Model the fold of this input.
Amino acid sequence: MFANTNLVYPTRIILSNSKKNFTAMGKSFNVCGDTISRSLESAENSFESMEVLAQQELKDVSRIFLLFDDTKLPKDNSKKIDGTDRHYDQKVGKKITAISMICFSVSDGEHNYPIGFEYLYGDFGREEQKKSDEKFLTKQEIIQANIIRAQHLFPDKEIIGIADGAFASKELLKWLVYNDIAVEMRMHSNRVVTYNGYTCQIRDMKALKLRGRQMAKTISAIWHDLKIQITVYKRIDKHGKITIIYLVSTFLDQPINHANIYKKRWPIEKIFRTSKQILGLGQAQTRKHQRNHIAAVLLAYSLLIAEQKKRGYKNPEDAARALKQKKPSTLNRYLASFISISLIGSNLSIN
Done:
């Protein structure tokens, strides 16, 4: 069972009332919306449950992929909802009030389990920081902390981080290279690198030109005094459209392997899409408990992936539809059966 069996209750609510806000959920259970929001377990407890579930589900694999990406949850003009801030949104080309968060998940390449998230601060956060002694973590510090966290969770496994081009900064890559941490990230084609004494933008590097049927090619290059691997590969979609993709990595491998590793980044996009479409990630608007709600949604997604894997469903949406058919009491017992938590001091272990 869960360390706190109340954890199952809000998870069941999210699975069965995914697109409703807390007020609508409350009506379904004959309680007020505040009662629903207060019933949510703390985010930290949900993180622990996600960690244990991921440890259980990935215990038999030798290589794990740590995926990280950010997303925004628009919150109109409210700055009172927990986690909201002013952020620039590239999709609309202006600043909006939203929750901006970076999510972390671990995957075996097929099944992907969230293990947590952190808010990213914008204009409001920077203003508050100037008024207080509190230090808000930067995006890089959050990533570094969660890479170390993944290493502690899976000490006996090879871990490769995967992210898109927004994270391929010289500061983060410097930390990754110096700490011998394997990552595969997309790289902007206008980055200037040096190869065999020749310096130019990646897209103009002759050594990276694909010839004939060649699908991928990798070179060792220097970028801001860092020795990195640059891979170019030809991506062909289901409609036959060709896109040239550039990647940066901190480890040696065959060109096609670099390309195939990066392709395993897609499941974290699936977390955002499914959580928003069927689990109500952006629906509830609570001033004090939004962080707990987001964590409960990610835990619910983890349980869907575990159910998908166990039953052989095609996707987590099919798993959700099947779980919603169960009676509430049956669903409580069934969800609790997925995770067994033993707390010894401050260390998590699996029974």
